[in-house]
Amino acid sequence: MEVSQSIILQSECKHCETPVKEDHSFCSECGFPLKGSDQDVAKFYAKRVMDKRKTNNAHEKIKAARKTLFIIAAIITVFGFFIYYKTQDLVPLIINLVVSVVYIVLGVWSKQRPLIALILGLLLYLTLIIITAIADPLTLVAGILWKILIIGYLAKGIYSASSINKVA
């Protein structure tokens, strides 16, 4: 009785225990060098450690950007009440409260979908800066340092979220 040559022996990856075919050089699941030298295995583990550190750092930047969305919401709310008490006009207060709610929703949503939430938050922030600059050009330079910091935090969060998406 002959054994068919179409049967290929399988074993398990030493790292993730995924079944792999004997003729493969790398695990298709995790990339572990199945037939690699000790140096190849060491490089594999070193790369995993570096990727984990990069991911942890990215999560911290995303968390800071998320906090920035909540801070923007708070600033807009306070500013809305300030305008209301100064002018007794309810319309700017309502607009500011709606925009604040949008930022809070984006902040909460950034836990599930950080990249899109942070991009939308940055676009909304830039749109608000442009609209207020059209209404009063002096607002463009007023608080410029804060504007740069907010844009910077959101941009770092976007970059980190996109780098995590590339790794995943």
Automatic annotation (TrEMBL):
Source species, domain of life: Bacteria
Keyword Transmembrane: yes
Entry keywords, A to Z: Membrane, Transmembrane, Transmembrane helix
TM region(s), chain numbering: 68-85, 91-109, 116-134, 140-159
Protein name: Zinc ribbon domain-containing protein
